[in-house]
Specification:
alpha+beta, binds zinc ion, about 120 residues, 4-stranded antiparallel sheet
């Protein structure tokens, strides 16, 4: 569990983000899955006439980027606890996004809540 600063407008609120550490074997597995998927698509695009001049270089870059990011993601976001700056209520929600920043809505008033790991320089 860690606290991440949150900016919404000019107010700074502090939601809790529950993180699960991912052990290295799972990370390696996910990294290889990402590599196989994106790398596989890149290999397939070699057989598309003309377009492969574009698709292959792009595919190589995407494969490298996605694989790098998969390897460095050592956490899974389970749920976030929002302290809404607008209605001052707390709500806990699960999120599908796995990377910050995360945009979500307050369950009570629908206020946009923006989660980031950077402090707002307002
Ligand atoms: Zn609210």
């Amino acid at each position: 569990m860690m606290i991440i600063s949150n900016s919404a407008g000019s107010k700074i609120i502090y939601p809790e983000v529950r993180l699960t550490e991912v052990d290295s074997s799972v990370r390696v597995k996910k990294t290889l899955t990402t590599l196989a998927k994106t790398g596989g698509l890149t290999l397939l695009s070699v057989f598309i006439p003309i377009l492969h001049f574009i698709l292959v270089p792009v595919g190589v870059i995407v494969t490298a980027t996605m694989t790098y990011r998969a390897f460095h993601r050592n956490y899974v976001i389970d749920s976030i606890e929002i302290h809404c700056p607008s209605c001052d209520k707390k709500s806990t929600q699960s999120v599908s996004a796995q990377e910050l920043p995360i945009r979500t809505l307050c369950l009570h008033c629908g206020h946009m809540v923006y989660l980031t790991n950077e402090h707002a320089n307002a």
